[in-house]
């Protein structure tokens, strides 16, 4: 078993071990989950430092390929390209932070909670590492079970409605993808191996469009894209803090990753056909999510709608099909995981102190909790994309990539998306002002404790990443370069095929790196 497989399955092994601990030993379960998740992160550093991003390096590294159900063409095939590596690192870094954040927040069924967290980590890691379509689908669907339990058991009062809505949306959409996967294997020589399918898949233009839609709907629900987003605010509002952090930090990236890894490269001609519509929905989501933030009374629900807006930027970058747009989209996946994860942690810390998330219950608390206020302001500046923070790098690349690309109405898309940046700054700064500044309106806030040592340990790595990714982004950009270049090459070939069929067709993708990233060649 190679290092990648160890990283993927170590949390599951920890969950199995935890099953044999007595339920009453809550401290042991917390410690075991923390040790296992930390060990997984430390082992994943071997993936980070062992990965080669130099030109000519293998497309997929740390690869393992063995038969699983050979008679059906299904195998255990895992490996990492640069984009998958970044998301694996995000997952292994966030999980111990989430476990530590729940240390004092979860008091009932601690054993089951920690088992669910570890099983969820394996499912998420497997989703990013899988290179067999059936294996990918197994991991993809496996995420639903622990997430359903996290919200349904440890959530708030309306948790049953939120969990059922979450499950129905994601499961129904995923069934469409399963049907498409079976069809794809039948037209790719009877194999489910992603690398082989990408090379041998042959379908008609009409079939490719239906297949793309089947994959795209499953991924769009998970992102979630407007108008398939309605499950997200309810899920976030009812989930425990740990569930919200892992949902926003990693789970939603499975959808954007799915577009980058599967929907776009497997069905490039269909993607070109639907690209303007998806970009338009992304822009609508950016503005709609931002506007909805202005009318929220619950801090958690506000951050949830901000996710709809921020992930609209990711989708716009992916649909730009330029080096800047694609790279910015990948980078913004990481940024959202770090910044929005930190926001949910901070909201959870306030909730632990006051047991309310209503904005009106706060005001003027910065004088009582100056370090919480400072951390909240830093994360807010990251969320709105202030230069020097990680958010600026991703949004700048996405907007420039959209503007410079050949997407129809690209100028309008970029201009309208830019208003989302402005709206984001306004609603986040209003939130900060109403919660932390002005007169202290509620006497119950007069004795709030500031950050504890444990909370510093939880927030510290994320605050460090906000500055590091904003000031020194290149180490995080480099792994994405080769996958982005390969995807652009694939779309250039698809466009040539379409132009051969219709010579009057104009180029619609940025087939050459544009000036912003020219220095990276």
Walk me through what this model shows.
- The chain has 521 residues and is mainly alpha-helical.
- The chain has a domain at 267-513.
- Helix content is 71%, strand content 3%.
- It contains 20 helices and two strands.
- The protein has helices at 3-18, 26-50, 82-101, 110-129, 133-142, 144-154, 159-186, 194-200, 205-222, 231-238, 241-251, 253-266, 268-293, 299-320, 323-354, 370-383, 390-404, 410-436, 453-471, 474-501; strands spanning 61-69, 74-80.
- It has a two-stranded antiparallel ribbon.
- The longest helix is centred in the middle third of the chain and has 32 residues, at 323-354.
- It is globular and about 70 Å long.
Order of helical and strand elements: HHEEHHHHHHHHHHHHHHHHHH
- On the 0 to 100 scale, the average pLDDT is 91
Distance between the termini: 35 Å
Choose one word for the global shape: globular
Strand residues, percent: under 5%
Radius of gyration: 22 Å
Furnish the topology, listing elements before pairings:
Layout: H1 3-18, H2 26-50, E1 61-69, E2 74-80, H3 82-101, H4 110-129, H5 133-142, H6 144-154, H7 159-186, H8 194-200, H9 205-222, H10 231-238, H11 241-251, H12 253-266, H13 268-293, H14 299-320, H15 323-354, H16 370-383, H17 390-404, H18 410-436, H19 453-471, H20 474-501
Antiparallel strand pairs: 1-2
Helix pairs in contact: 1-2, 1-4, 2-3, 2-4, 3-4, 3-11, 3-15, 3-19, 3-20, 4-5, 4-6, 5-7, 6-7, 7-9, 7-10, 9-12, 9-13, 10-14, 11-15, 13-14, 13-18, 14-15, 14-17, 14-18, 15-16, 15-17, 15-19, 15-20, 16-18, 17-18, 17-19
């Amino acid at each position: 078993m190679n290092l990648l497989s160890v990283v993927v399955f170590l949390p599951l092994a920890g969950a199995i071990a935890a099953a044999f601990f007595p339920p009453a030993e809550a401290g042991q379960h917390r410690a075991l989950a923390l040790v296992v998740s930390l060990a997984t992160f430390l082992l994943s550093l071997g993936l980070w430092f062992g990965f080669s991003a130099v030109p000519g390096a293998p497309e997929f590294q740390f690869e393992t390929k063995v038969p699983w159900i050979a008679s059906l063409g299904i195998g255990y095939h895992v490996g990492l390209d640069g984009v998958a590596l970044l998301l694996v690192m995000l997952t292994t870094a966030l999980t111990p932070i989430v476990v530590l954040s729940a240390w004092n927040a979860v008091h009932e069924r601690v054993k089951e909670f920690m088992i669910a967290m570890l099983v969820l980590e394996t499912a998420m890691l497997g989703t990013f590492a899988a290179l067999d379509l059936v294996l990918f689908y197994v991991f993809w669907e496996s995420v639903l079970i622990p997430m359903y339990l996290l919200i349904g058991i440890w959530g708030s009062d309306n948790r049953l409605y939120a969990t059922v809505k979450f499950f129905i949306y994601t499961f129904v959409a995923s069934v469409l993808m399963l049907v498409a996967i079976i069809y794809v294997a039948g037209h790719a020589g009877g194999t489910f191996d992603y690398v082989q399918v990408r090379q041998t898949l042959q379908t008609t233009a009409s079939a490719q469009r239906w297949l793309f839609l089947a994959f795209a709907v499953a991924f769009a629900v998970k992102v979630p894209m407007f108008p398939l987003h309605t499950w997200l605010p309810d899920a976030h509002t009812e989930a425990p803090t740990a569930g919200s952090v892992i949902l926003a930090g990693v789970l939603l990236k499975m959808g954007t990753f799915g577009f980058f890894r599967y929907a776009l490269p497997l069905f490039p001609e269909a993607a070109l056909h639907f690209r303007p519509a998806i970009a338009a929905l992304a822009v609508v989501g950016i503005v709609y999510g931002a506007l909805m933030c202005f009318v929220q009374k619950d801090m958690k629900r506000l951050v949830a709608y901000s996710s709809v807006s921020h992930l609209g930027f990711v989708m716009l970058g992916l649909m730009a099909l330029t080096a800047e747009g694609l790279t910015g989209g990948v980078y913004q996946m990481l940024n959202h995981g770090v910044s929005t994860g930190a926001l949910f942690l901070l909201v959870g810390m306030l909730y632990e102190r006051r047991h309310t998330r209503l904005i009106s219950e706060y005001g003027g608390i910065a004088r009582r909790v100056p370090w919480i206020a400072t951390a909240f302001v830093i994360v807010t500046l990251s969320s709105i994309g202030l230069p020097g923070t990680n958010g600026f790098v991703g949004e700048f690349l996405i907007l420039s990539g959209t503007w410079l690309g050949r997407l129809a109405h690209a100028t309008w898309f970029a201009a309208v998306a830019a208003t989302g940046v402005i709206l984001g700054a306004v609603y986040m700064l209003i939130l900060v002002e109403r919660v932390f500044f002005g007169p202290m309106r509620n006497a119950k806030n007069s004795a709030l404790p500031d950050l504890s040592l444990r909370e510093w340990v939880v927030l510290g790595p994320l605050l460090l990443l906000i500055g590091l990714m904003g000031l020194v982004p290149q180490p995080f950009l480099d792994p994405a370069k080769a996958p982005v270049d390969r995807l652009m090459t694939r779309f250039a070939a698809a466009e040539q095929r379409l132009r051969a069929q219709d010579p009057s067709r104009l180029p619609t993708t940025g087939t050459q790196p544009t000036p912003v990233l020219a220095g990276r060649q």
